[in-house]
């Protein structure tokens, strides 16, 4: 919204700074962070009163969680989403269709997560929204977003899949691309959702991924940088760096309250929304495969659940002591801070590997 101030630059030249994505990304980060810092305590107090017993804790999980996490309110994703939305609407160029597509998925997935959290809290049960129904709605939202992206993109890029570490390899998948890209968005949302199981475990890797894709979006949306790095130039995607900046700022504010011992949990409200946001940006920038690298920690988490379930159904045996895999390491004797910090380190390493795909071509 503040981009209109740049139109006044002929009368007051310093206002020209509002044209620059880098400046507005920094402004979005600071705004979102301050928003969550200022309104976070009130939101936490309100949710604690409304929820009473807070998020139900798994009885079959680590026994320490029953003592340290019981009574903690959930739906903290509302804080993050509010910070991202307010900051994005303030600092992004609202004439850019990519901005609205990403916000559409973020709010849509967040609404699904909110309903799921609501059912869990009111029923004090882990059985929230029906899994099949939830996935079906997510798929519809993702499909709408992917179709919109296909229409917005330049004709030479629509329905095409680019491969990392390659200058020229790009495959025209036709309308099957909508199915593939929708899978990426839905998969990203649920992978982050699975990862959100320990204090601070999900939000920091999400911020690392957001920083990485903010950088990628800025480069992919700039013809000069894209040509130099020999990545595909996607006009308009540079504006998505502002949303990534807002997510980082809101994430920092949330981490202040989510640091051990957490005052609030992100819940499905936040994890689904943030995963969907990252997935949509990856699709828009033609870096879907790179998301699997940068978000490799999320992939590991969701694959551990898939492997555990498949192994138990087929053989009656479990591969891990407990799934998702962060609980496996807890059962091995790692403390919660050890698991969280070591997983953060893995997320940083994977982000660096993902960034290397920009130059190793």
From TrEMBL:
Listed under GO biological process in this entry are: cell division; cell wall organization; peptidoglycan biosynthetic process; regulation of cell shape
Ordered alphabetically, the record's keywords are: Cell cycle, Cell division, Cell membrane, Cell shape, Cell wall biogenesis/degradation, Magnesium, Membrane, Metal-binding, Peptidoglycan synthesis, Transferase, Transmembrane, Transmembrane helix
Transmembrane spans? 20-47, 74-92, 98-115, 135-154, 174-194, 201-220, 240-257, 264-283, 289-312, 339-358
Classify the main location: membrane
List, alphabetically, the PROSITE patterns matched.
MRAY_1, MRAY_2
Q: What is the required cofactor set for this protein?
A: Mg(2+)
Tree of life domain: Bacteria
What positions does the entry give for Mg(2+) binding?
193, 268
Q: Where in the cell is it found?
A: Cell membrane; Membrane
Which EC class is this protein assigned? transferase
E.C. code: 2.7.8.13
The biological pathway it contributes to is: Cell wall biogenesis; peptidoglycan biosynthesis
- Reaction equation(s) it catalyzes: UDP-N-acetyl-alpha-D-muramoyl-L-alanyl-gamma-D-glutamyl-meso-2,6-diaminopimeloyl-D-alanyl-D-alanine + di-trans,octa-cis-undecaprenyl phosphate = di-trans,octa-cis-undecaprenyl diphospho-N-acetyl-alpha-D-muramoyl-L-alanyl-D-glutamyl-meso-2,6-diaminopimeloyl-D-alanyl-D-alanine + UMP
One CC-aspect GO term: plasma membrane
Pfam family, any one: MraY_sig1
Q: Which InterPro entries match?
A: Glycosyl_transferase_4, PNAcMuramoyl-5peptid_Trfase, PNAcMuramoyl-5peptid_Trfase_CS
Q: Which GO terms describe its molecular function?
A: metal ion binding; phospho-N-acetylmuramoyl-pentapeptide-transferase activity
Membrane-related topology note? Multi-pass membrane protein
What family does the entry list?
Answer: Belongs to the glycosyltransferase 4 family. MraY subfamily.
Which PANTHER family has this protein been placed in? PHOSPHO-N-ACETYLMURAMOYL-PENTAPEPTIDE-TRANSFERASE (PTHR22926), PHOSPHO-N-ACETYLMURAMOYL-PENTAPEPTIDE-TRANSFERASE HOMOLOG (PTHR22926:SF5)
This molecule's function is given as: Catalyzes the initial step of the lipid cycle reactions in the biosynthesis of the cell wall peptidoglycan: transfers peptidoglycan precursor phospho-MurNAc-pentapeptide from UDP-MurNAc-pentapeptide onto the lipid carrier undecaprenyl phosphate, yielding undecaprenyl-pyrophosphoryl-MurNAc-pentapeptide, known as lipid I.
| Name the UniProt record assigns to this protein | Phospho-N-acetylmuramoyl-pentapeptide-transferase
């Amino acid at each position: 919204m503040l981009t209109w101030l740049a139109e006044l630059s002929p009368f007051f030249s310093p206002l020209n700074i509002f044209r620059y994505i880098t400046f507005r990304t920094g402004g979005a980060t600071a705004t979102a962070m301050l928003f969550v810092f200022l309104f976070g305590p009130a939101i936490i107090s309100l949710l604690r009163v409304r929820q009473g017993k807070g998020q139900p804790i798994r009885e079959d999980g680590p026994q320490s969680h029953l003592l340290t996490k019981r009574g903690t309110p959930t739906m903290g994703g509302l804080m993050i989403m509010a910070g991202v939305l307010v900051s994005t609407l303030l600092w992004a160029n609202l004439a850019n269709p990519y901005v609205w597509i990403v916000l559409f998925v973020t709010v849509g997935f967040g609404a699904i997560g909110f309903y799921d959290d609501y059912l869990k809290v009111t029923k004090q049960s882990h059985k929230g929204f029906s899994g099949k129904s939830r996935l079906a709605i997510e798929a519809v939202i993702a499909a709408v977003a992917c179709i919109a992206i296909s229409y917005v993109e330049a004709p030479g890029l629509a329905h095409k899949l680019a491969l990392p570490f390659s200058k020229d390899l790009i495959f025209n998948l036709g309308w099957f691309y909508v199915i593939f890209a929708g899978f990426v968005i839905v998969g990203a949302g649920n992978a982050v959702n699975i990862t959100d199981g320990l204090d601070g475990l999900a939000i920091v890797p999400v911020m690392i991924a957001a920083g990485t894709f903010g950088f990628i979006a800025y480069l992919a949306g700039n013809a000069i940088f894209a040509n130099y790095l020999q990545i595909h130039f996607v006009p308009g995607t540079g504006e998505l760096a502002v949303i990534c900046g807002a997510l980082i700022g809101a994430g920092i504010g949330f981490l202040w309250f989510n640091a051990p011992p957490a005052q609030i949990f992100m819940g499905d409200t936040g994890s689904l929304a943030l995963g969907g946001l990252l997935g949509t940006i990856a699709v828009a920038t033609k870096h879907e495969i790179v998301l699997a690298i940068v978000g490799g920690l999320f992939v590991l988490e969701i694959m551990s659940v898939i492997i555990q379930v498949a192994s138990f159904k087929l053989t009656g045996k479990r591969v891990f002591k407990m799934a998702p895999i962060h609980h496996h390491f807890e059962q091995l004797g790692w403390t919660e801070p050890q698991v969280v910090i070591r997983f953060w380190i893995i997320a940083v390493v994977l982000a660096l590997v993902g960034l290397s795909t920009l130059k190793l071509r």
